[in-house]
């Protein structure tokens, strides 16, 4: 058996690159941007305009792309520029420089989040905008398999429904929802008490 990629019949374990390294890169840029006021050039897992925006929001002034260009060619850069331009227009910004570091004030540590007291179960629960909901069911699936089974599914109406008594405000449903603004927070009507009933049914 010959492992791939093969160089002269041999191979070696690789490093971390592409999408896998993006969380590390974002953390590094954010930490440096908070510590010193210098131009920062970011690299690590940038393969779309959304990745580019994330890096800029935490302090990057320029961006570098490696893996994505190797896999898809330089044309991907034009796609990133077009996506970034549309994003800036939609958000009302006139220049890319205006978004650099915009998210830094809200980037903190787990320790500080604990001090704020924003720990699940929080004082809120998800609220679904059914005018925006596309009925894909992703929120239901992840809540059933990785949450508190609080996101119920109406098979007749084909829509998710939140069981407030089970929800611990983990926000997993929000993270997987493909429609921006479809799932938001609303205040609880009563304190959270976990009530896990029935069998676990993976999807």
Radius of gyration from the alpha-carbon trace, in angstroms: 21 Å
Q: How many domains, as an integer?
A: 2
* Overall residue-averaged pLDDT value: 90
Distance between the termini: 36 Å
Helix fraction?
A: 25-40%
**How much of the residues is beta strand, in percent?**
5-15%
* Count of discrete alpha- or pi-helical segments spanning 4 or more residues: 7
Strand order of the largest sheet: 1-2
Query: Which regions contain 5 or more consecutive residues with pLDDT less than 50?
Result: none
Q: H/E order of the elements?
A: HEHEHHHEHEEHE
| Number of DSSP E strands | 6
Topology:
Blueprint: H1 22-35, E1 41-43, H2 49-57, E2 62-64, H3 67-72, H4 75-91, H5 110-116, E3 124-128, H6 138-146, E4 151-154, E5 159-162, H7 172-176, E6 183-187
Parallel strand pairs: 1-2
Antiparallel strand pairs: 3-6, 4-5
Helix pairs in contact: 2-4
């Amino acid at each position: 058996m010959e492992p791939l990629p093969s160089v002269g019949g041999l191979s070696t374990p690789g490093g971390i690159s592409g999408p896998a390294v993006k969380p590390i890169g974002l953390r590094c840029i954010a930490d440096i941007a908070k510590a010193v006021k210098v131009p920062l050039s970011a690299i690590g897992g940038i393969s779309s305009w959304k990745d580019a925006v994330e890096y800029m929001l935490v302090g990057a002034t320029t961006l570098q792309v490696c893996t994505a260009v190797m896999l898809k060619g330089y044309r991907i850069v034009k796609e990133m520029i077009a996506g970034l331009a549309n994003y800036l227009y939609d958000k009302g910004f006139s220049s890319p420089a205006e978004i650099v570091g915009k998210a830094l004030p809200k980037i903190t540590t787990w320790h500080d989040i604990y001090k704020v007291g924003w720990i699940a179960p929080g004082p809120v629960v998800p609220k679904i905008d059914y005018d925006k909901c596309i009925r894909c069911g992703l929120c239901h699936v992840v809540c059933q398999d990785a949450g508190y089974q609080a996101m119920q599914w109406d098979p007749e109406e084909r829509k998710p429904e939140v069981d407030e008594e089970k929800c611990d405000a983990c926000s997993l449903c929000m993270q997987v929802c493909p429609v921006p603004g479809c799932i938001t927070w609303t205040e609880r009507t009563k304190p959270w008490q976990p009530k896990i009933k029935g069998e676990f049914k993976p999807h």
